[in-house]
Amino acid sequence: MSDMDGGVTVAANTDDVLGEVPVWDADAECLWWTDVFRPAIHRLDAASGKVESWTPPDKVHSFALREQGGLVIAGRKGFALYDPESGAYELLHDPRGDDDGTLLNDGRADRQGRFWAGTMDKMLKRPAGRLYRLDADGTSHAEADGITLSNGVAVSPDGGTLYCADSMPKKIFAFDLDAASGALTNKRVFANTATLPGIPDGATVDAEGFLWSARFDGSCVLRHAPDGSVVQEIELPVSRVTSCALGGANLKTLYITSAFFRLTDEQRAAQPLAGALFAVEVEVPGVPEPRYRG
Asked: Fewest CB atoms within 10 A around its CB: which of 140, 180, 190, 220?
């Protein structure tokens, strides 16, 4: 499809209700992502443009590639292992309390191969969410709490900083991440984005340690410098921009997911590409996506 303003193209029009968490598989040169509500797992072959889709046995809110193949997922039922191609599914456990009214949400693997996923309050009113670390042995540990809507989990190139947004107060936080133990310390506000359009959603880092952050209801992706300031903006033809990942042969293609979740008929008519996967070339490459070692 032809370029839009700023060089943005449609990489795949999968018409996702809630497209999320694109993950680049450098070995297979393909991009994985999920539609939380269909539910679906998609895989785009970057060279051919072919998209394959599978229906997972649970709604997948986030996932990471596994070293042994397949995916580790954070779903409605908890943490699980899932191989879309074979259909194999193994529920590991649910780290949440039975009645705490939360859902697992955005997640990502860190440089040591652990999987991180945060939770959100179903009603988006209470800071009942936590940030969990799933270790390679299958045990999980709550490393942060007081979160209303956990999003934007990303890890710095050196593995020493973990980023996580709380979308409701529109803040992106940073933590010191201990490489050996996986412990989080020194929580601080990386960027208070209350004056920016939309709310912070999914995120990724590039090789210079800058953070790309999708803006849900903000129609854009922002690039934050290490001091939290915004140094670049990529505008999208849709309002509900959900997440992003750097991929492609040289890791310089920024893939961006979107959603038409809860748009009115009038809003959808004005945004016919809502739910598409977009791509745009950027100057600074990403970092290879780690895989879960469990």
From this structure: 180
